[in-house]
Design brief:
Number of helices: 15
Shape: globular
């Protein structure tokens, strides 16, 4: 198959057969996606059969530990990184706070970290707080009209004091896909580390982190069809150089160095269901094609993106033709994620409430992107309406959304 089999896809998500959700079109996926059946099945099995301390010598414990290891191994392979380079934490925000603490101990006063105002606060606030330690924080700002992050503006900020640049793969309100690979390559050539927030990108196709060249890549499993965990890739050389943030006796294990809290065993184990789902899609759409994990993930990524892009462009065209609202971010689907933020005279929350009465589940507010909204002249307190979808969204649901948007003013 060369196009996404939507019926097969939706059959893997119990939410679509849930009676209480019938008649509702889900357009708040950027806040958290539906969970796929393999994840739910693994989580249920873990709690029923393996809810014991893992890695002990008895059978249930061995199975528990093996499933946790499986999740790390399979997902890392799909992203083109070593198993040890992938760690799990309670959320991307928590993972970033731990990382920022490590960098704060490692860097010296006068060193520079560059952040953006396009990010979700998770990849902005923790780094900015390091100013209290004498770290200089420089801001790479968006174009106030388009929300675009111009790479040339970044290079104007770079000098020999810069140690780290933190930026999003794509913003959760602007949605433009930034040229991560090109930026990371140039930073690496300059001896500067990169930290990429992939939370708003990963749900649209698991990233090939090795190809992107990011030193740190973060995203959230609960927005990527999985449980509530934050996934963090940190490349080995950097991870071993940064100060250990975990118990001292875990310092020699890379995937434990930046997770000081005890891991959620069941949710880590259930994350293997994300890999199950990707493999199921590959087996269904590429029958008889033998490929390694990284290639399978890349081919599924392309299937997802193609379906989403085809659905997104008519929506963008329709919204761009209206003069009563402002569409944030690019107007071309190929260059953005299907996360669409709209500024209107009515507050975002009010618009979301009006949509709910017509069977549209969407969100209104600032979405922890206060700086990004302010950078584009939007009051975070007023907020935006955000409609966001992923590959399991149907053309009929998009048509219904457009129809309802025309009725709600």
């Amino acid at each position: 198959m060369t196009s996404l089999d939507l019926a097969f896809v939706r059959a893997q998500f119990p939410a679509f057969s849930e009676p209480s959700l019938q008649g509702q079109a889900f357009f708040e996926n950027a806040g958290g996606s539906y969970t796929c059946k393999p994840v739910i099945d693994r989580l249920t099995r873990y709690y029923h059969q393996r809810k014991v301390q893992p890695y002990a010598p008895y059978a249930a414990s061995q199975l528990a530990g093996a499933e946790m290891d499986e999740a790390r191994m399979r997902l890392a392979a799909m992203m083109g990184v070593e198993t040890e380079e992938l760690s799990f934490g309670p959320s991307t925000t928590a993972n970033t706070y731990v990382l920022a603490r490590a960098f704060g101990e490692w860097l010296s006063p006068g060193d520079v970290i560059i952040v953006t105002d396009q990010d979700h606060e998770a990849n902005s606030g923790p780094w900015r707080r390091l100013a209290a330690r004498g770290i200089e924080i420089r801001e790479w700002t968006v174009d106030p009209v388009t929300g675009h992050l111009d790479p040339e503006s970044l290079w104007a900020l770079v000098d020999d004091k810069v140690r780290l640049v933190c930026f999003p793969h794509c913003s959760n309100v602007v949605a433009e896909i930034n040229p991560v690979a090109a930026i990371c390559m140039r930073l690496r050539e300059a001896g500067i580390y990169s930290c990429v927030d992939g939370v708003s990108y990963a749900p649209h196709g698991l990233p090939d982190v090795d190809a992107l060249g990011a030193d740190i890549y973060l995203f959230s499993a609960y927005k990527t069809y999985g449980p509530h965990q934050g996934l963090m890739v940190i490349r080995q050389s950097l991870g071993e150089a940064l100060p250990n943030q975990a118990h001292y006796f875990n310092a020699d294990t890379l995937y434990k160095r930046f997770t000081p809290a005890g891991p959620d065993h069941a949710q880590i184990a259930a994350s293997a269901g994300m890999a199950d789902y990707i493999d199921m899609l590959h087996a269904h759409h590429f029958q008889g094609v033998e490929a390694d994990a990284r290639t399978r993930a890349a081919q599924v990524h392309d299937l997802m993106r193609a379906h989403e892009t085809a659905l997104l462009q008519p929506l963008l065209d329709h919204l761009a033709a209206r003069n009563d609202l402002r569409l944030l971010g690019p107007h071309q689907a190929a260059g953005r994620a299907p996360t669409v933020a709209l500024s209107h005279a009515r507050p975002g929350h009010d618009l979301a409430t009006a949509l709910a009465g017509h069977g549209i589940m969407a969100g209104g507010g600032s979405f922890y992107a206060n700086r990004a909204l302010q950078g584009q002249g939007v009051d975070p307190a007023h907020g935006v309406l955000r409609v966001s979808f992923v590959h399991y969204t149907s053309p009929a649901e998009l048509d219904h959304l457009i129809s309802v948007l025309d009725r709600v003013e």
